[in-house]
C-alpha cells in the first residue's frame, strides 16, 4: 500500500479519537440530570404550597376552630349582657361585632341549627340571640328579692359568680345594697351572698351565752341529750315531719289442718248410707 495513504489513515484515526464524542455524552448526561433535578424542585415547591393550602383549610374547617368561634360568641354575649346591652342580635350582627366574617356558610349553618340553639347560655327568640344567665336580674331590687326568697325557702345563698353573670353592672348594685346582704367565703375561695334578715337580729345576754357555750355536748348524741333533758323536766322539740307508717304484720297461720265439715243431705237415708269422709271403713 502507498505509504502516503497509510499516513493519511493514521492521521484520520487520530482526528477521530481526538473528537469530543465522549464529552458530548457527558454533557448530555449532565443536561439530563439537570432536567431531572428541576422537576424535583418544582415538585417540592408545589407540594409545599399544597401543604400550606391544606393546612389553612384544615384550620378553618376543624372542630377546634368551630368550637373556638362558639366560645368567642358566648363570651362576647356574656360581656355585653354584663355591661347592660341585653337586646337580642341576629347572627350576622354577632359575627360582625366579633369579627368572625371569614367563616364559611357551613359553619354559619352549624351555629344557627345546632351550636347556638343547644347552648345553655344562649336564648333564641325569633331568629335572634341573647345571653341566658342563671338568674336574670334587672337591678339591685331584683337581687334583693332573690336573696330574700332563698332565705325564706331555706335554699341558702347565691354564688357571687352567678350574680355577676346575670346582673348588669353588678358591682355597683352590690355596693348600693350595703349591709342588706352578707358575704361568706367558702373553703374553695368562692363568695356566697346571703340576705341579711334584720328581724332575726336581737341581743343575747352575755351570761346566757357563757352558760350556753359552757355545756359540753361534743361527746353526746341526740338520744343522750334527749334523755338528759327529760331528767331535768325539759321536753325536747318533737319531730313534726311525716310519720313513718309501720308495715302491718301478717298473722301467722295456725299449724295443723282443720277437719272439714260437710253438710249432710238425704236425712231420710240415714240408716242406709255410710260416712266415708275418714276413709273406707274396715270390715269386721
From TrEMBL:
Could you tell me which InterPro entries the record lists for this protein? Answer: TFA2_Winged_2, TFIIE-bsu, TFIIE_bsu_DNA-bd, WH-like_DNA-bd_sf, WH_DNA-bd_sf
The GO biological-process annotations, alphabetized, read as: transcription initiation at RNA polymerase II promoter
One term of GO molecular function? TFIIH-class transcription factor complex binding
What is its quaternary makeup? Tetramer of two alpha and two beta chains.
Major subcellular location class = nucleus
Any idea what this protein is called? Transcription initiation factor IIE subunit beta
Task: Give a yes or no for keyword Magnesium in this entry.
Answer: no
Amino acid at each position: 500500500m502507498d505509504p502516503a495513504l497509510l499516513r493519511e489513515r493514521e492521521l484520520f484515526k487520530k482526528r477521530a479519537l481526538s473528537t469530543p464524542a465522549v464529552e458530548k455524552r457527558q454533557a448530555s448526561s449532565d443536561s439530563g440530570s439537570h432536567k431531572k433535578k428541576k422537576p424535583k424542585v418544582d415538585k417540592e415547591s408545589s407540594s409545599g404550597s399544597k401543604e400550606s393550602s391544606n393546612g389553612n383549610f384544615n384550620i378553618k374547617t376543624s372542630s377546634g376552630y368551630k368550637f373556638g368561634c362558639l366560645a368567642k360568641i358566648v363570651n362576647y354575649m356574656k360581656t355585653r349582657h354584663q355591661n347592660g346591652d341585653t337586646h337580642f342580635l341576629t347572627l350576622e350582627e354577632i359575627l360582625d361585632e366579633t369579627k368572625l366574617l371569614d367563616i364559611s356558610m357551613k359553619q354559619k349553618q352549624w351555629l344557627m341549627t345546632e351550636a347556638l340553639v343547644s347552648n345553655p347560655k344562649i336564648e333564641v327568640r325569633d331568629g335572634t340571640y341573647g345571653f341566658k344567665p342563671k338568674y336574670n336580674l334587672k337591678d339591685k331590687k331584683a337581687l334583693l328579692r332573690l336573696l330574700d326568697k332563698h332565705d325564706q325557702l331555706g335554699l341558702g345563698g347565691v354564688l357571687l359568680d352567678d350574680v355577676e353573670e346575670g346582673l348588669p353592672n353588678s358591682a355597683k348594685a352590690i355596693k348600693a345594697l350595703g349591709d342588706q346582704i352578707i358575704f361568706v367565703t367558702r373553703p374553695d375561695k368562692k363568695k356566697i351572698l346571703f340576705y341579711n334578715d334584720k328581724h332575726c337580729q336581737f341581743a343575747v345576754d352575755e351570761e346566757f351565752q357563757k352558760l350556753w357555750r359552757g355545756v359540753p355536748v361534743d361527746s353526746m348524741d341526740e338520744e343522750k341529750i334527749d334523755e338528759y333533758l327529760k331528767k331535768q323536766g325539759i321536753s325536747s322539740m318533737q319531730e313534726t315531719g311525716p310519720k313513718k307508717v309501720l308495715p302491718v304484720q301478717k298473722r301467722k297461720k295456725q299449724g295443723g289442718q282443720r277437719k272439714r265439715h260437710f253438710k249432710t243431705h238425704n236425712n231420710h237415708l240415714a240408716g242406709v248410707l255410710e260416712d266415708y269422709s275418714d276413709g273406707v271403713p274396715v270390715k269386721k
